[in-house]
UniProtKB/TrEMBL annotation:
SUPFAM superfamilies: A DNA-binding domain in eukaryotic transcription factors, POZ domain. Residues 672-718 form the BZIP domain. This is Uncharacterized protein. Gene3D superfamilies: Potassium Channel Kv1.1, Chain A, Transcription factor, Skn-1-like, DNA-binding domain. It comes from Umbra pygmaea (Eastern mudminnow). The keyword Transcription applies. PROSITE patterns: BTB (PS50097), BZIP (PS50217), BZIP_BASIC (PS00036).
DNA sequence: AGATTGTGTCATTAC
DNA sequence: CAGTAATGACACAAT
């Protein structure tokens, strides 16, 4: 426990140190430790108290049924209870709810108040909403239900409201079969088929959706802070992080904007949501650079982009925005809390990173023992990582920036069911888990590592959790529905995923770097690979135009939250990080996507200030397409991505196996060489940035150290003055009590420095002692014997024989007072020596 | 066993 | 800012 706390502290040490640097005196530094689990812990304890009827001070009667609770909790969640409680006696309060409220509607709300999770189903969602509306549950405002209800109760006419992508047109049909609200148990459906699909395509998608709700307005923005402020927070954090992954984390910052900063936002989490994702080539992602390039850029930003006709509703939206702004203060606290949670999450990620590095070190040692050089092994390991990532690039790249979420969070465990992270970063998990695994490529990737990997099908998708904060830490992971599927899923993935490295949490640093690179740089090349379209064998010649629509983005398109993006916390979270996200990039041979097919998530993740979106418009894209074209021309029998992912030996085997022509060999080697070099250049630049950042940090530390030393010097100077003053007073007192004669004082002054307080006792006007001459003047460097003078000696003992004479002896005058002192030392042995003059003086 | 050579990879720089 | 080519250094295997 302590170690965890300290690890968290360690992760913040830099911030703390920087904070110190700003404080003039280190002794006055003030540190702040923000616990991200405290609130959860408190809430959990309150819930336990409620269950045990401990400290409950209110009884809520609904339909004759009584519920014990804490008025403070209810009042903090409900405006209704706030008013009722404040107007009642402090003890024994019994509140009977209006008749229109039911147990079915209130009980989940009560549970929500204590757990941040709302269990709901189609049967009780309306009652819950009514209850929430009447009781004024702040975290379950209409935005939430406006978003959910249409998914549950949309009409059949809105089943397939928008133009579906070609690859899924025939298969992805909206199916709303009675109570099977979200999905069928056995057949995967696109996100549009889920209950959370808003109706689009011109059809009024949500009957209870306010007409003025429109994308970009974020009416349901749970975090009312200005976007700039949020961004600023994120940037501030990232600026404190290692630059090696700064950009990466900057992208994650967007993710965090959707996951971390929006953890408060109610998101849908489906329990037992692990559904089979049978291989469906027709619906498999189309990661083609062209298609997917355009998918992230085009698809994504489409939903983000506010349609022109909706601009006319800006005024109406403004009113809602103002209303939302009113909740800013309340939400601010929660946002800060979640920010702390995000920071802690980052700390854990760093921990895992460290462990991964250790594992890699061990692996390298093992490989080193296998005979080959460590470097070579490392290379091959990287290549393996490349390969693995290439194999997984579909999911990573298809979500592009979404992988940042994965990287910043522990990946597979999230949906894998181990769910440690689910407790650590519940917001994200719920935020993502709210989407059907097979509908969201991100989740699908979490649940389905790749082709050929089967995930055990779970059934029983009947209940959902609407969580505003996260998974209840009190609930054991194993007891949570996700846990049922987790282990199996992970094992399955490990079987099919080579060594299971697709689990990001277990990836080494190198692998992550390579994966990062692949996500950034090789996306285009890999994305066009038909293997990612469901053809694991690789790209088919001539398939460079990626005509197929990526089903991985279908879930976004089908979700199509344009109808109410602000109402969808998930969407909004993704949307927020990117600004307009209107960048469109179109690659040659890539199907142009309409605005309606844009994906806000992808847009937000691939566009933005990090310039990723620009990357899609770079010459490299055309290069990639030229690669594809070139591969087509040379009739390359395997995928270009396959070239990049193979180790050296595997690559050679591949060349041998395929009996390539000279032209083909040159081509693949050229591709491979460029790819390697590209990766190397990226690493080099990253290192350079890292080095610069480290130097900057070093400069900051040195500046702080300089400030600290200067402050310390001032303090020491002040202490010296005080000490001198004290000593001077002491000298004066001693001399006055000893009633030294001026001659004696002069003798003392002789052996005192100019700044010795004793010197001040001797007036410059005092007549010099005859025979002393200038020797009676204070000396700059007194002999060490001065220290032998005891205060007691001065005070109580008889002065030395020499002192008894009015005229010092020649021996004294010649400076041989030492012997005299030594001779008389027996008189002063019992007395502590006076503070050494030279000590105070110097 | 040591030196030489060829090959592959990586880091770096310049464009 | 990113990709690419060129270059040097290094490691490894074969000779």
């Amino acid at each position: 426990m302590m170690s965890e706390d300290f690890s968290s502290l360690d992760n913040r040490c830099e911030q703390m140190s920087l904070a110190m640097s700003s404080v003039e005196s280190p002794r006055s530094s003030v540190f702040t430790f923000q616990s991200s689990v405290h609130s959860c812990h408190v809430l959990r304890c309150l819930d336990e108290q409620r269950r045990r009827d401990l400290l409950c001070d209110i009884t809520v009667v609904v339909e004759g049924q009584s519920f014990r609770a804490h008025r403070s909790v209810l009042a903090s969640c409900s405006e209704y209870f706030t008013h009722r409680v404040s107007s009642h006696a402090p003890q024994g309060l019994v509140i009977t709810l209006p008749q229109e409220l039911s147990v079915m509607g209130f009980e989940p709300l009560l549970q929500f108040a204590y757990t941040s999770k709302l269990l709901f189903s189609k049967d009780n969602i309306l009652e819950i909403r009514q209850c929430a509306s009447i009781l004024g549950f702040r975290d379950l405002d209409s935005a939430c239900f406006d978003f959910l209800l249409p998914k549950f109760f949309r009409t059949s006419s809105s089943k397939l409201p928008f133009q579906r992508k070609s690859c899924c047109k025939t298969r992805c049909r909206a199916e709303d079969h009675g109570s099977e609200v979200l999905v069928e148990d056995t057949e995967p459906k696109p996100f549009s088929d889920s209950a959370v699909e808003p109706v689009v395509g011109g059809v009024p998608c949500q009957s209870n959706q306010p007409a003025n709700d429109k994308p970009g307005r974020h009416g349901g923005n749970p975090d009312p802070r200005p976007e700039a402020e949020i961004q600023s927070d994120a940037q501030t954090d990232y600026s404190l992080q290692c630059p090696k992954y700064r950009k990466f984390q900057l992208a994650c910052g967007k993710e965090r904007a959707c996951s971390g900063l929006n953890l408060d936002s109610p998101v849908v989490t489906k329990m037992c949501c692990l559904l089979p994702r049978p291989p469906n080539p027709a619906c498999l992602p189309c990661p083609g650079r062209g298609g997917c390039r355009q998918t992230p850029g085009g698809n994504t930003s489409q939903l983000l982009h506010r349609p022109v006709e909706e601009q006319g509703r800006a005024d109406e939206e403004q009113g809602r925005a103002d209303e939302e702004q009113g909740r800013a203060d309340e939400e601010q606290g929660r946002a800060d809390e979640e920010q702390g949670r995000a920071d802690e999450e980052q700390g854990r990620a760093d921990e895992e990173q460290g462990r991964a590095d250790e594992e890699q070190g061990r692996a390298d040692e093992e490989q080193g023992r296998e005979g080959k050089g460590g470097r070579r092994m490392l290379d091959e390991r990287k290549i393996e990582a490349d390969k693995r990532n290439i194999n997984q690039t579909g999911e990573r790249d298809e979500c592009s920036g979404v992988d940042c979420v994965l990287s910043s969070l522990p990946p597979m465990e999230v949906c894998g069911g181990k769910s440690n992270r689910s407790q650590e970063c519940p917001g994200f998990i719920e935020g993502t888990a709210g989407i059907e695994a097979h509908q969201c490529p991100l989740l699908a990737r979490l649940l389905d590592p790749g082709p050929g990997l089967q995930i055990p099908a779970n059934v029983g998708v009947r209940a959902y959790v609407l969580g505003s904060r996260g998974v209840d830490p009190a609930i054991p992971v194993s007891s949570q529905p996700q846990g049922q599927r987790g282990k199996e899923g992970v094992e399955e993935r490990e079987q099919g995923g080579e060594r299971g490295e697709y689990r990001w949490g277990g990836r080494s640093r190198v692998e992550r770097e390579v994966a990062e690179h692949l996500a950034q740089g090789l996306w285009s090349e890999l994305s066009c690979s038909p293997r990612l379209h469901g053809s694991p064998q690789g790209m088919e010649p001539g398939s460079g135009n990626c005509q197929g629509r990526s089903p991985s983005t279908d879930w976004l398109n089908q979700l199509d939250m344009r109808s109410n993006p602000g109402r969808c916390p998930f969407h909004h979270a993704l949307d927020r990080g990117t600004g307009s996200g209107t960048e469109e990039s179109q690659l040659p041979g890539c199907e142009v996507s309409s605005n309606s097919e844009r994906s806000p998530c992808l847009s937000s993740l691939t566009s933005g200030d990090d310039g990723d979106s620009d990357g899609f418009d770079t010459e490299g894209d055309s290069e990639v397409c030229s690669y594809i074209q070139r591969a087509k021309e040379v009739q390359l029998p395997f995928s270009v991505s396959r070239i990049l992912g193979l180790s050296r030996n595997e690559f050679q085997l591949l060349l041998r196996h395929h009996n390539l022509t000279r032209e083909q060999q040159d081509f693949v080697q050229d591709i491979r060489r460029r790819s390697k070099n590209r990766i190397a250049a990226q690493r080099c630049r990253k290192r350079k940035l890292d080095c610069i950042h480290n130097l900057e940090c070093e400069i900051d530390k040195l500046k702080a150290e300089r400030e600290r030393l200067m402050s310390e010097g001032k303090q020491l100077s002040q202490m010296q003055l005080n000490a001198q003053h004290t000593v001077s007073s002491l000298y004066q007192r001693v001399c006055s009590e000893a009633a030294l004669r001026p001659e004696q004082l002069q003798v003392l002054a002789k052996y005192s420095s100019a700044d010795c307080p004793l010197s001040a006792l001797i007036s410059s006007t005092d007549p010099p002692i005859p025979g002393l001459g200038g020797l009676l003047q204070p000396l700059a460097c007194p002999p060490p014997t001065c220290s032998l003078i005891s205060s007691d000696h001065l005070k109580h003992s008889e002065p030395p024989a020499s002192f008894s004479n009015d005229t010092p002896t020649e021996e004294e005058l010649s400076g041989d007072w030492t012997s005299t002192q030594a001779h008389d030392s027996d008189q002063v042995t019992d007395a502590p020596p006076i503070e050494q003059c030279d000590q105070h003086r110097c």
